[in-house]
Amino acid sequence: MKYLKTITSLLIVVILLSCNKKQSNPETLGENERPNILFIMSDDHTSQSWGIYGGVLKDYVQTPNISRLADEGTVLNNSFCTNSICVPSRASILTGSYSNKNGVYTLSDALEPDSVNIAKILKRSGYQTAVIGKWHLKKEPTGFDYYNVLHDQGRYWDPILRTKENFHKKSEEWDVHKGFSTDVVTDLSMKWLDTIDKSKPFMLMTHFKATHEPFDFPERHAKLYEGETIPEPESLLDFGAATTGRSFTGQSLDNLAYRWKQATKDPDSWWCQYPGLPFSTAEMDSIAARKHTYQKLVKDFMRSGAAIDDNIGRLLDYLEKSGLAENTIVIYTADQGYFLGEHGFFDKRLIYEESLRMPFVIRYPKEIPAGKRIDDIILNIDFASLFADYANVELPSSFQGKSFRENLKGNSPKDWRKTAYYRYWQHFPVRPSHFGIRNDRYKLALFYGQPLDMTGVSKKTTEPAWEFYDLEKDPKENNNAYDNPEYADIISEMKIELQRQRKLFGDTDEKYPEIQNLLSLN
Q1: How confident is the model over 97-152, as pLDDT tens digits?
Q2: Is the dihedral of CA 364, 369, 370, 372 positive or negative?
Q3: Which phi and psi (to 5°) does residue 21 adopt?
Q4: Is 464:448 a contact under the CB 8 Å cutoff?
Q5: Strands (E), 101-249
């Protein structure tokens, strides 16, 4: 009798396990039970220009639809990229892995079509998949039922887009779409949504070129900020490393002024067409010229951002009218941050906060609380794992990120990461190659300044240098405190953690003993 009871108990366990296994299989869930995913991403649309993150621009930016998403969803306060440059960041988002794993280190690299990516995984599980807009990963997109992507970096006006039908044809056979790029990409996104099977889930990646240089905007926003003076960041008049202790020159706003002046002289001499020319700083001293340059940059940038917000609103309205809103996860983010005059800089690439932070808001009425903010450290390698979690599919072993679905529900795992690891590979002396870590208070970085075997980099090395910042006392990173004895023990601990993070993600520079030697704790 005891034997029969044991057998019966075992059978019950097996049946229960079998049922659980079936429940985790997307084929048994019913396709309409799995959420749709609308992943909207812009280029360089930095957190300072969203309004919802505060800052000197918060009362000037026109972003009502971003604010709407924030009110109806959850905002990530500490979402960071792992390599702050367009091509590598996009590769990490798709592959869920760092540059040293996916092979996309610099702007010159390409994502190989046979790479494992989240689109392939979702497509195999029954999702309808599409990417529309900026791709920038060189080779043909794979894993998507449909793609319609900007050629290379893309242009703002009358953009050229490439599809399955013409991707490998001559350039004269690519499609030209009349209008402003951000509007065109949104039109194409809604057109694709009109064609899909509404009984099956979809993942749509809508990727805008904006707000990338040359920061262009449609005519409807041309008069925005006319006659206004926009507040300046406190470090706008930083003219060099001497006052901050930083170890490199950086991409100065003065260089942007030079680009505008060159383009004024010869509009065809530059790689892009800037709006609002002519531009001149003649008869101005260095301070006046810097301030004048900042005003043009920030106004153009916010105008470009206003057009993004318009189109986020159009997409949200489409979901509402089509009955898709309730079961659609909507995400808006940017591929990295951007300097808008902080430290006297423009552009990105650095481990500094303005460049490192990825603004991120997510709405999913069925599950995610409205009007909440999360301080957990989230990385761009986590996005793919989150999508797989919502789609109820297993993660491939190549994914290095983690799903933050529970974090979004307010149930952050006790073992969630406390440290973000970052590495920038595209070495140039003004912005040297570097890696580092950031936790909730401190940041440590080694600017090792070597090209290694990377493509599209300078061969001129720079003197290795450490930087350390106390983000509580110095949130704007205006004082490199590496040599401050007050932090000696903390820096030693962070160097140990830096090595642990590098080992964790397989970024140990085994081929480059010169880099390993720089990490000596002695």
Answers
A1: 999 999 999 999 999 999 999 999 999 999 999 999 999 999 999 999 999 999 99
A2: negative
A3: -65, -40
A4: yes
A5: 128-133, 146-150, 160-163, 175-176, 202-207
Residues of the chain with pLDDT under 50: 1-24, 27-28, 521-522
Report CA-CA distances (Å) from 340 to 124, 260, 370, 414.
Answer: 41, 16, 30, 36
**Beta-carbon-side half-sphere exposure of residue 174 (alpha carbons within 13 Å):** 17
Helix H or strand E encompassing 295 = helix 286-322
Tokens representing residue 109 in the block: 């690299």
Q: Do residues 264 and 250 touch, judged by C-beta distance below 8 A?
A: no
Pairing of strands 74-76, 160-163: unpaired
399 neighbors 384 (Cβ within 8 angstroms): yes
Enumerate residues 6+ apart whose C-beta is below 8 A from 482.
245, 466, 467, 468, 491
pTM strictly above 0.90: yes
How far, in Å, CA of 415 to CA of 93, rounded? 22
Q: Which backbone phi and psi does 223 adopt, to 5 degrees?
A: -95, -5
